[in-house]
Design goal:
This protein has two domains: about 120 residues, Enolase-like, domain 1 (2-Layer Sandwich), CATH 3.30.390; about 230 residues, Enolase-like C-terminal domain (TIM Barrel, Alpha-Beta Barrel), CATH 3.20.20.120. Helix 9 packs parallel to helix 10 and helix 11 packs across helix 12. It has twelve helices and 13 strands.
Length: about 375
């Protein structure tokens, strides 16, 4: 039984030297919202709430924690993190319908769920990956966040850090997209994994043309070529167009939709974002179903260090052939928390045997970036 004494949220923002460009907009900074729960015995658990775009949403999510969720969860007892997830979802459903804020509210619940799982694992004196049923504390990674404007420079920096798999943002214009893909394939050679992410940029006809253009470059996957909620017929037609595996899942928000996605057949790589929806309580069972269906579970995440570690623990808990997404842009909101988990190479995250997420984060190190 878990009895929550208090909950608070902190907002941080790190300004980027190099703007991260996506097909739907640009990111001038990296925000992070951390949730800290404390139980009646003084044990703390940490979570992270998705807030990476638009960055101005970070403060709003923190205010939802203080104005809505604090009253709901403080002094409440729960038999499990799953029980807390269902309680919070039920209690905020009318508010979701009233306000239309399904996403921000679900993201707050996801962050709380991560924190409760961290707290539970700490109380059990187990690392989170083992608490969740895993047998290995290491996960392979890939470098993400490579924008078109400085793609080769960013990729070279990632390779120098030890990465051997890269993901490039595309979805801009065909000429620059293909040139960047060609350049990164040359940098990687024939053995490294190269992935591309269109961020829902294209129509079906545009995506089919791009699949043809991308075929020579031996891509591990093409991520979100069209809008995530387009009909199955459109996704299936793309899957039949090319041998390049299709990936997606970061913009799916329910057990029913994930179950449908797993059974539909058009995605080979499925990428839930546990800080965006579901937390660990919902995503771990979904990840197991993904693997059982002979598909690849690759957790999506692009934020701070707490969410990255939680995603790593999830991948370690379920196993499989998936890779952990690691933003390769400079971000102390990530590296100040995760620096002890990478050995000599960024290509492997080693989670270790410390309880919970594996850290008691020293937030004073990043206090100069705190904005709320």
């Amino acid at each position: 039984m878990i009895k929550i004494k208090s909950i608070e949220a902190f907002v941080y923002r790190f300004p980027l030297k190099h703007i991260v460009q996506t097909s739907f907009g640009q990111m001038n900074d990296r925000p992070m919202v951390i949730v800290r729960l404390v139980d009646e015995d003084g044990v703390a658990g940490f979570g992270e709430i998705w807030c990476n775009y638009p960055a101005v949403g970070a403060e709003h999510r923190a205010k939802l924690i203080s104005s809505i969720f604090a009253d709901l969860i403080s002094s409440k007892s729960f038999s499990s993190s799953g029980n807390a997830f269902e309680f919070l979802t039920q209690k905020t459903w009318v508010l979701c319908v009233q306000t239309g804020e399904y996403g921000p509210i679900a993201q707050c619940i996801a962050g709380i769920d991560i924190a409760i799982n961290d707290l539970q694992a700490r109380r059990a004196s187990l690392p989170l990956w083992k608490f969740l049923g895993g047998s290995c504390d290491e996960v392979a990674t890939y470098a993400s966040g490579i924008s078109p404007a400085n793609a080769s420079e960013t990729a070279e920096r990632a390779l120098d850090a030890g990465h051997n798999a890269l993901k490039l943002k595309i979805g801009f214009d065909t000429q620059s997209d293909i040139q960047n893909v060609k350049d990164l394939r040359h940098l990687l050679g024939t053995n490294g994994n190269l992935m591309v992410d269109a961020n829902q940029a294209w129509t079906v006809s545009e995506a089919k043309l791009m699949l043809h253009e991308l075929t020579p470059y031996d891509l591990a996957w093409l991520e979100e070529p069209i809008v995530a909620d387009r009909p199955d017929t459109e996704w299936l037609s793309l899957a039949k167009t090319s041998d390049i595996p299709l990936a997606g899942g970061e913009n799916i928000f329910s057990e029913e939709r994930f179950s449908h996605l797993v059974s539909s057949g058009y995605l080979k790589v499925i990428q839930p974002d546990l800080a965006k929806w579901g937390g660990l309580s919902k995503i771990i069972p979904i990840a197991k179903k993904i693997i059982q269906a002979n598909k690849i579970y690759c957790p999506h995440f692009l934020g701070g260090g707490i969410g990255l570690l939680a995603s790593g623990h999830a991948l370690a808990a379920v196993g499989g052939a998936g890779l952990l997404e690691v933003d390769c842009n400079i971000n102390p909101l990530r590296t100040s928390i995760t620096q002890g988990f990478f050995d000599t190479s960024m290509s492997v995250l080693k989670l270790g045997d410390e309880p919970g997420l594996g850290i008691d984060p020293d937030l004073t190190e990043i206090d100069r970036y705190r904005v709320h």
